[in-house]
Amino acid sequence: MNVQADPLVDDYLRRLNAAASALPAHQREELVCEIRDHLREALRQTPAGDKAAVRTALERLGPPEEIAAAATDPPPPGQPAAVSETNGLAIASVLLAVLWFAGIGAVLALVFGYRARSQIKNSAGKQAGSGLATAGIILGWIGITILIAGVILIAFHPNKPQ
Amino acid sequence: MSQLRKGTLEYCVLALLRDGQRYGFELVRTLSEADGLLVSEGTIYPLLSRLRRDQLVSTSWQESDAGPPRRYYQLTDAGKRALADFSDEWARFRDAVDALVTTQGEQDDERASRPAGR
């Protein structure tokens, strides 16, 4: 039978699609596709309109919400959990900001600090140190303010050496 | 118990692929009919997708003589290693649990068979 045209199958796949809305789009489409292929195989020999056979096949699959939950679940225990490590750039950022290095440290602290923050954000919990990175950024801006103040002071100092 | 089942299921999938490739429907039917595993068929597909993302299995589409092409799953080298590691570990784990569960059971039986009033 043609599973595409079956209202029960249609409804089931729609529920699956809705339940899997938390998945990335390509993963959700693939899942729905796999289940549709599965039903096509399961009902290959079934004459069209055999509602009982369709119901049995759907029951064997289980509730669509359960399938979606299995797809969004974290991996089963026993697999090594991702170790959270501190982002190296975040540490470098704070160090450079503190050392200042005639202002160059402050500039580098900002560059490293912002990059560290985006890396930590993209690591999805695998990296720590966003507090450190923020500290590096704040100290970096303070360093730059000191640098600018210093330049202004020297430039406009009344007792400029001749 | 359900956690134990869930954790071992992926290795059951790998084990089914040990002797060659199989397509999704075939894998899922075999697993769901294995007595005691108690899995609903649909939840095996997310597992297959995870195994593929972890590169323990690879897939290929192949023509079938009946109907549209099928997606076949096969073990990668990493999958073979994971299965071998698990097999060793599982044998030790099973023996240890068996030893505890059965001796414990025998002790209970002995206690139960002693005449009352001792």
Written overview of the protein:
Chain A has 2 domains: 3-72, no CATH class; 85-155. In chain A, 67% of the residues lie in helices and 2% in strands. Chain A has 7 helices and 2 strands, in the order ααααβααβα. Chain A is rod-shaped, with a radius of gyration of 30 Å. Chain A starts with 6 loop residues before the first helix and ends in a 7-residue tail after the last helix. The mean pLDDT of chain A is 86. The longest helix of chain B is centred in the C-terminal third of the chain and has 37 residues, at 77-113. Chain B is mainly alpha-helical and 118 residues long. Chain B has a single domain (2-113), classed as Winged helix-like DNA-binding domain superfamily/Winged helix DNA-binding domain (Arc Repressor Mutant, subunit A, Orthogonal Bundle), CATH 1.10.10. Chain B has helices at residues 2-16, 24-33, 44-53, 77-113; strands at 22-23, 57-62, 70-75. The two termini of chain B are 38 Å apart. The model of chain B has no long low-confidence stretch (mean pLDDT 87). The radius of gyration of chain B is 20 Å and the shape is elongated. Chains A and B meet through α2 and α4 of A and α1, α2 and α3 of B.
**N-to-C span of chain B:** 38 Å
Reading side by side through the largest sheet of chain A, how are the strands ordered? 1-2
Q: Report strand % of chain A.
A: under 5%
Runs of chain A in which pLDDT lies below 50 for 5 or more consecutive residues are none
- Total domain units of chain A: 2
Any idea what the CATH superfamily of chain B is called?
Answer: Winged helix-like DNA-binding domain superfamily/Winged helix DNA-binding domain
Give the % helix of chain B. 55-70%
Radius of gyration of chain B (CA) equals 20 Å
Structural class of chain A: mainly alpha
Q: In the CATH hierarchy, what is the class of chain B? A: Mainly Alpha
Biggest interchain interface, per-side counts: A-B, 25 and 24 residues
Overall mean confidence score, pLDDT of chain B: 87
